[in-house]
Amino acid sequence: MRSPLVVGVDIDDVLYDWSGRAHELSLAAGIAGDRPPAQITSWTPYVEYGCSADSWHAVIHRGVQDGTLYSADPLPGAGAALQALVDAGHQVQLITARGCGDFAGLTSELVRQQTRAWVDRHALAHHGLTFSADKTVVRTDVFVDDNADNVARLCAAGTRGYLMDRPWNAHVTHVDRVRHIDEFVRAVLADRGLG
Ligand SMILES: [Mg+2]
Q: Cα(1) to centroid of ligand 1, in Å?
């Protein structure tokens, strides 16, 4: 049996439909324009909506303050996928940039509290939960993230980085691209050239 792997997993738009939730809140707030897009397709949704960045940040900020942004269920299959990694003997490290930086003046600790509570509430199998914009702060063997820059940095640090397929990274050429956390877990468990 090969040795266990340290498996890094991003949360937003990997385990959690952050962009979908943010879009719902934007629609409800009426900032998404007269002909709103079906979904967010970039890191700058306010451009897609035709509203100001401040308006969008205000919606996100309110979603944090009233708890609506981070309170939805995990994406379907996310919990089972993490459990499958743990059951196979691997170490799961959840590493998220939530609560990092000063995005829209959010209260970092509030975001972190909500995230810890969400992970506990859904009993997501994991060995560590780290809040960091730099995903290389925890040494990992393999990692899945939807941010192509993060994946590039992880690969440069020696981690096999998988890119979660999302509209905002569709232009990036990357060999290890997955469309769902299930697909990532299958790749890890199949030991496709890892180790
Ligand atoms: Mg993400």
A: 32
Tens-digit pLDDT profile for residues 41-82: 999 999 999 999 999 999 999 999 999 999 999 999 999 999
| Ion ligand 1, residue ranges at CB < 5 A | 10, 12-13, 146
Task: Tell me the CA–centroid distance for residue 52 and ligand 1, in Å.
Answer: 23
- Examine residue 195 and state whether it is found in any structural domain, yes or no: no
Q: Are strands 160-164 and 177-178 parallel, antiparallel or unpaired?
A: parallel
Q: Tokens at residue 133, please?
A: 């914009």
pTM of this structure: 0.94
Domain membership flag for residue 52: yes
Please indicate, yes or no, whether residues 32 and 125 belong to a single structural domain of this protein: no
Residues 149 and 102 in one domain: yes
Spot the catalytic one: 12, 13, 17, 146: 12
Is residue 12 annotated as part of the catalytic site, yes or no?
yes
Ligand 1 centroid to Cα of residue 118, in Å, is 16
Looking at the domain assignment, is residue 148 inside a domain? yes
| Cβ-contact 129, 116 below 8 angstroms | yes
